[in-house]
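Researcher: Here's my situation. A collaborator sent me these components and asked whether they could plausibly form a single complex. I don't have experimental data yet, so a predicted model of the whole assembly would be a useful starting point for our discussion.
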Amino acid sequence: MAVIYLDNNATTRVASEVVEAITPFLAGEYFNPSSMYEAARGPADAIDAARKTIARLLGKARPDEILFTSCATESNNTAVFGTIAANPERRHVVTTAVEHPAIFEVCKDLERRGFEIDFIPVDTQGRLDIGEFVRALRPDTLLVSVMHANNETGVIFPVEELSRITKETNPSIVFHTDATQSVGKLAIDLRGSFKHVDLLSFSGHKLHAPKGIGALYIRRGTRCRPFLLGGHQEDGRRAGTENVAFIAGLARALELATESHDADVARITALRDRLQRELVERIPYLEVNGGDAPRLDNTLNIACHFIEGEGILYQLSEHGICASSGSACTSGSLEPSHVLRAMKVPFTAVHGSVRFSLSRYTTDQEIDTVIKVFPNIVASLRRLSPYWDSERDAPTPEALEMLEQTEMPEARA
Amino acid sequence: MRDNSKLKTQHSKLMYGAFGHIRSAIMPRAPRLVVRGGLMTWNYSKKTTDLFMAAVQGRPGTHLGEIEDADGFGEHGSIACGDALRFSFRVDRDADDPLKDRITEARYLTFGCTSAIAASEALCSIIEEGDFTPIEALKITNQDIVDYLEGLPQAKIHCSVMGAEALEAAIFNWAQKRGVDLAELGIDISREEQEEGRLVCTCFGLTEPYIERKIKELELKSISEITNAIKAGGACMSCHHTPGGLQDLLNKVWGKQPATFKELPVLPMAREARAQPPREMSPFKFAKLVETVLDEHVRPQLARDGGDLEIVDIKDQVVYVGMKGACSDCIGSNRTIKMMVEQALKDRVDERIRVVQV
């Protein structure tokens, strides 16, 4: 059965052009770029070239502002712990309630260590509460870390504005953004609209490069201590032999994303919008999470009332369709997604969320298949649900009453 | 479980009494039968997925539905907790002795994941195939459901427990309807009061007596075993190592000394350490004055162009203002407005004031 891959916010297929860029450094030019002999010049040059390409494509940043890491999680950890280590006199961090775990859990951990953390809430569409953000900021704030686009809902935060407000409050506050979901999808101009951003994380495998390569932009002059200690690689800012092949692949992937950006956006948006429109039309009691907020063009997060997402995913996968869910049964915790709970998605729907995330390889036919099978899957699970009256094909009266409660009944810390 | 939904949960009314020894024998068998695997990938047995697919496709022989005027009816779980099972059965009533009733038909409605639905199917099949009296059916354990499914991933064991709990609730309901005195049969029915104890797992609303009983019955030896079986501690995880938390309950049941807790040192907060810059005015008076100046000197000017502004916050000498009305759309004049507001405040309140536009 052909795989219909609609989970591109989890990871992406490696582009064939990227494979071509990587291959020479696996078998042939395997030399350590730190070595002195002539043969090592190829790998060393490849890293230099990749650094230049990436810096240029992020808005004419300087090459020495790009640090290669192993993944976005490492970039995020480096940004947070590196900033803390470099500014020991400050202990206040501002972040959001919907960050990726690579920031969210790090901040929770800092809180346990005695740091003061403000988790800025979002509204029901996933938009950041700017008033709360401003009120949380302090002149002695150490770090602000706000994601650019949300991995679950695709909702985009106004990083340009937030970083400006931060710097106008106090230029010494470090501003970090986790741009893992947006690099390659949204234009990022580190000399223009992102000029107030000090640190920016992303990884390769969200933009058709392989897993195992990430990068951290560190604006010149930003105080940030290394996270990995050891050798002198990356100007002493990140020890460890460079992943030459994947660094070359990351640069190639970003080039491809930039080249085809305009065409991709138009096509992907049309596909996503059609998918959303058709599903909303065919399925009653469906929420589009973040539907009214500025969103990534490739992401559709929906929540089906009265059913559980894991059973949806299982049936989708029977049709070869790959998607993901924020339900408790798929999260590794027994709790549904912290992002959807922060958005106060009704508790009757929060377990029934499904995320479809498209890429430039998504086809019309694939979307057709989803539109055809998804409503039946939802109907099949509702038939089994104690909250659904199959005869009337509508929620039971009790279920309708529950719908009016919008929040999860439990008050959770 | 504590929740505001309409589904009543009845586990606290359940009882095992004389059958407790059967239950306590089940967990040691588990490792042999349970499919090991990651949390995130599907590691279901073929039996589990076959039952699930049969159920969602409504194939003949599946047990979807609710029996009207059922002889036994029980529920477990809630939509807020992520899974819920509504179970009902019909008996062939014996004219003389209700204890000779035979269960002939079982049905379920389930909100939950693949394994929760498969476990519900398994429960109904076990019961219909066994030709049990309700009292015999009480002996069906969650491990029987796991066995029928040819194993369940560890993290999904709670789906089988949900089935066993709903079954027991239904049998209790049958006993009430048929006037059977379970206490007379040596089955403890005083459980309900005991289990309204101290709340340990607030996320799933589970009390100390309930968790303690389950630790004993299912021979749960670690926090992760507790979570896999009854979900306690599986969400916010704050009850794992707190005093009186899951680890302490395990220690209490299995006779270990409670761990001594070292309070983690809390570092002094930056907020306390921060030196306040000397200021002539109190923050209240300062804010009032800013507001007055904006009202008298700035708002009238903006209003002429159909605009307005609001104060979002004031910190020291930084005033955060948001533009409203026509001003909020007018990108070109933003800088001018900011300068105008800032100048008015500098002149009339404090020359150190800075305005940040939000």
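Model: Some features of this prediction you could bring to your collaborator: Residues 242 and 262 of chain B are 11 Å apart (CA to CA). The longest helix of chain B spans residues 157-178.
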